[in-house]
Design brief:
By secondary structure, the protein is an alpha/beta fold. The protein has helices at about 15-30, 35-45, 60-70, 85-95, 135-140, 165-175, and strands at about 50-55, 75-80, 100-105, 115-120, 140-150, 160, 165, 180-185, 190-195. The protein has a seven-stranded mixed sheet, with helices on both faces. A two-stranded antiparallel ribbon has the order 6-7. A hairpin with a 2-residue loop joins strand 6 and strand 7 (about 165).
Length: about 200
């Protein structure tokens, strides 16, 4: 989610209908921090290669709508939102999509439905704070992809945040079970994309 993500859709045309619906719900709810269009297009493209997709931090469902719109027939999608009202609103957005489950709870609820081919960490998994981060060996199938969105693009190495080395981001770059890269999506927006290596501990 981005702080002003919902506002970024103001002048956009020809969005996937489900994305339009989720953005409309976010606006009506006064929920500003939605998945930005640049990030959404990345998720749309990546969803096509996955059979099982997980997401933390549903919000009002904008990012999830991009995932659902890009997913192949038969794919299963699970998203977890800790806020009860937002979880309810998002569930209504996907009421006609039985392959989608929106769960209200702590991000760790995502464990019960994995492992995943694609996992998007936003509102959980400590994608950006570095405290008790999600374990890709438990959550991803070998070859599965992890996406951490809404990052400020790195302009130095090692990447820095608030004047210090970005330890949270370096956790994923240095993780022995992942091959990670940063993708710049806009001058002020980046995503970290990592693939779980085929060697190492198996997923549960």
């Amino acid at each position: 989610m981005s702080v002003d993500g919902t506002a970024a859709y103001a002048d956009l045309m020809e969005l996937p209908p489900l994305v339009e619906r989720a953005v409309r719900v976010a606006r009506q709810a006064g929920f500003a921090p939605s998945c930005r269009p640049e990030q959404g297009r990345l998720l749309y493209a990546m969803a096509g290669g996955a059979e099982t997709i997980g997401e933390t931090g549903t919000g009002c469902g904008v990012g999830l709508a991009w995932l659902v719109s890009g997913a192949r027939p038969g794919a299963r999608l699970v998203s977890v939102e800790r806020d009860a009202r937002r979880a309810s609103l998002a569930a209504q957005v996907f009421a006609d999509h039985p392959q989608v489950s929106v769960i209200r709870g702590d991000w760790r609820e995502i464990h019960r439905h994995g492992p995943y081919d694609l996992l998007v960490l936003d509102g959980g998994g400590q994608g950006k704070s570095g405290e008790q981060p999600a374990d890709p060996h438990r959550l991803l199938r070998p070859g599965g992809t992890l996406v951490i969105d809404d990052l400020t693009p790195a302009r130095h190495w090692p990447p820095r945040f608030d004047g210090a080395v970005d330890r949270a981001r370096m956790h994923w770059f240095d993780h022995p079970g992942l091959d990670a890269a940063e993708l710049r999506l806009a001058p002020d927006l980046a995503a970290l994309v990592a693939t779980r290596r085929f060697d190492g501990a198996p997923a549960d």
